[in-house]
Structures are given as structure tokens and as C-alpha cells.
Fold this protein.
Amino acid sequence: MSLLGWIPANVRWFQDGPVIDWCYMGGQHFTEPFFEETINRVYNRPFNLLFRRETRLDALRDFAVQSPGLPPAGFVFHMSRCGSTLVARMLGAHAENLVLSEPSPLDAMLRIEQRYGGVADEHRALYFQWMISALTQPRTDAQQRVFVKFDSWSMQDLPIVRQVFPDVPWVFLYRDPVEVMVGTMKRSSFGTIAGPLSQRITGVPVQQLNAMPAAEVAARVLGKLCEMAATFHQHSPALLMNYSELPEAVPARLGPHFQLHWNETDLDTMKQTSRFNAKKPDAQFASDSVQKREAATEQIRDAVAQWITPHYQQLEKLRSYQMLSTTTTS
Amino acid sequence: MEIEHFRSLVFADSELMEKLSKASTEPELIAMVQQHCGDLSVTGLQQMMKTSRTLWLQRWLER
């Protein structure tokens, strides 16, 4: 039976393999800042409550053959708390763009080896490709391309992403690390607390992470994400974008990088979008950089200096080369 | 007819699926379902939706 109109909503793990919960989208759109928020809304619609649907992975494979989805036109990676949601919202303001913001079923496929040891990279790449295909089904007739904003910790999985989509451009977003750390310490994410995810990123065993101050764990993770971005950038050039450049850099630098051509109306729509808080679109945007820097404790500053600053500076150096080469070639 | 059988029928019929998916409230959906399959009980359908909601919440929290 066809899965057209359905989208993977969640992945559950069983001994004999994962089970995918699907959700019927019908005419519903991704209007919320995050994939999860849209799925949560749509899943709780009466139809989905009554007509639950679940499949095994092979259904994903068959669906990918039947309906491959929209072609990815750009991938957004980031260190978290650095404006990536704003970028996603601005890209999504264009009717031709489908934007998926941190879809958890994709993360599940990328980290499937954490659940089932011994999953070869080639299989992981296949599962990732099938999942992308299911997630990127067009939701309107106007949609022509898709952008995926990954979870911050997916930076580590860039080689798999590049293996499947070697020609799709990617961007790495980052921000003054003190500001990111203050935001992170205020509201932690899965990736920045001691656990399997931070172990996977830092390579430090969970037991050791558990014994560290929370700020050190978070700083090690964030530093590692920046380090990985700078390293991957050497082999597979990304657009490096600092929060300080937003929102102007979206049309000015990201647009050309993703080969997007915007007219005046598009630019105006994006500008309007950028005036609102990306995570709470009902509220006006207000910069919190100064407050964040003022709120930084000594412990945060020390952790940033030790674990993030060297990699942040490296990214800034690479970005300055990038800006210079753009200026000299334009 | 059992709900599982009805589910299979719905999944195989994209027009019916689209029509049912437009129901914005549970009573509205139950009424539409009963038009197609009168022997499914209202209480049973209500219970099923309640269970789904709980399951979703559990899965959400488990992640």
C-alpha cells in the first residue's frame, strides 16, 4: 500500500530492528520552527489518532523507489544556539522551498549504530538516503527543493551525508562561543549534557563526562563540533557563517552558495521573517548578545577558552579567507 | 467489521483517506467513519484514539 501523503514521525527500536511510526500529513504544512512541533500537531489530529500506521525499514526502501522526494538543495549544520533556526525560517519563507528543521527520524538513521552495534557505514548511508527520500516528499505543488537543518550533533555524520549527497552544498553556522555557552547552560540540549551523545561526539567515556562540571561537558562538545566543521571544510568546502552576519548574510552569501535566485518579493518576505524570534514566531526578534556576554560566569569563560576558542578562531580565520576570496572574485 | 480491516481499506483508498483526514474533531471523524462502517462502536473508536494519544506521549517522552 502506498505511503504517499505519509511522513515518518518517529523511530522505535526493537531487538529485531527499528519500527517507523508514520503520520498522515495530507494538506498540512511545516509551519512551526521545528519538525517535531509540526509532527506533534499533525499526529494529534483525529485521523492520525485513529489510523496509526507503522512499518519496518523495508517500507522506506520501497517508498524511496516509488517516490524519491524532492532533491536536497542545501544542508545546514551548526553548533546550536547560533541562528540556525532563523536561517531555516528564512529559507522556508519561500514557497518553493521545503525546509525540514532537525527531523528526529533522520537523526535516528544517522545514529542507528548506537542502537545496533556493527551497522556498516554503507548501510547507514542507505537508511539515511531512504529516510531523506520519505521526509522530502513535496507538501505543496509549488515546492521544488528541500533544505535540511540537521541537529547540531549530526556534524559528526557529515561524511555519511556527503557520501550520499556529494554535490549538495552545506553551510556551518556558529557564534561567539561565550554567547552560545550561556544559552546552552540556560537550556541544555541532549548533545551537551553527559550521556551517550556527548560521548559519541567527544570520544570521552560517559563515566568521565559524568564526573566533569556541566560547563566543561558542554564546552568540550561545542568545541568538538567547531573542530569537526573546520576539519571537514578542508576536504569538502562549506560556507562558514557567523551569527554576527545574520540576517543579511542569508540573501548575500547563503543564497548564492545554495544557488538560489531571489526576487524583490522573496527578499522582502525573508526580511519580514527575520524580524521575528525564530523559535517563537509570535514575538519580535531582540538581540541578546550583550546580555549573554554579561551573564557569562568565570567558569563558562574558562571552559570556552580551553575547549572552544581555538576552534572558533580557526573557523573565523577560514571564514575571513572565504570573505576575501568572494570580494576579490566579485 | 474490525477496525484493523477498516484501516487496511482506508490505507488502500487515497480519496477516502484524504476525506477522513480533513476531520478536525474526534466526533466529526467518528461520524464519518460510521458512515462507511456502521458496526464500529463509538466507544471503541473513542478508546482507540485515547490510547493513541497516550502512546504518542509515551514515545515522545522515551526519545
About this structure: Residues 188 and 218 of chain A are 8 Å apart (CA to CA). Chain A touches chain B at residues 1-2, 4-5, 10, 12, 21, 24, 26-27, 40, 43-53, 104 (CB under 8 Å). The longest strand of chain A covers residues 6-14.
